[in-house]
Each structure stands twice: as C-alpha cells, then as structure tokens.
Prior knowledge:
Number of strands: 6
Oligomer: single chain
Shape: globular
Amino acid sequence: MNHSDKIAADKTSLGFEFQDLVYIEKLIELRPGQKLGLELHDDIHVETAAEDGSIDDLLLIQVKHSVNEGNITDRDIDLWKTLHNWIKLIPDLPRHRKLTLQLYTNKNLNNQTFVSLLKASRQNIHLLLGRGRLVYAVILPDGRKP
C-alpha cells in the first residue's frame, strides 16, 4: 500500500469511527422498550416498541463525517444524497406509527433557506417539501450541482 492509499484509508476509517461514536451515544441513551440497530434500516436506527410489541416510533440516523471543514449548505451533495436515500428507504421500512429522520454530521449548519428550514423541520414541513422538490430536481437527476 503506497502512502496516498494509506491516507485515503485513514480518511475513510474516520467516518466509521464517527458512526461508532454516535452508536455508543445512542446506546447510552437507550430506554426500556427500545432497540438499537446498526446498518440495518439506516446507518443507525432506534425502534421504540408499543405495548402490543409493534413498532411505535422508528428513528433513522444517517451519519456523515467530512475531513474537509465547511458548512452544510442548501446545495450540499451529502445532504441531498441522504434525503434521496431516505425517500427510497421509507417504503421498505417495517410498519411504525411515527418516523423520525436524523442527520449527524461534523459540519456546521449555515443559514441558507433550506438548511434553516431543516433546523425547525416539524414547524416547516410544508415549506421544506416545496423547497426540497425544487432543489432535488435541480441537483440529483444528472448529479451536478447548479
């Protein structure tokens, strides 16, 4: 393995280590009636059982680590890949009453329109959907950023 391959491998391992740290955090926070999963429904997921044993709440956690400093912007390709993956994943999930999608990242959030709406997503769901359709259509079909 040459030096550049070793550096690339080290960078890749940082993402897995970051995911492991988030997993341990969620493990510490686990409450009775909850199950924690790794790389099953998403990078990490937490299921909360209802009294009848069905899944009441399902939390999907996507973990993104970047070695480059920067902010998550409205045009951040990792953000849009995550949203795209969630859209594709949802139909195949087990039955649940409530679904929460959570993104863990070491990047800062900027104050652009879409990212700002994400900061209070429950209050802004209709605005997010409208803005998301517009940006999603512009970025993902051909893989280019506008």
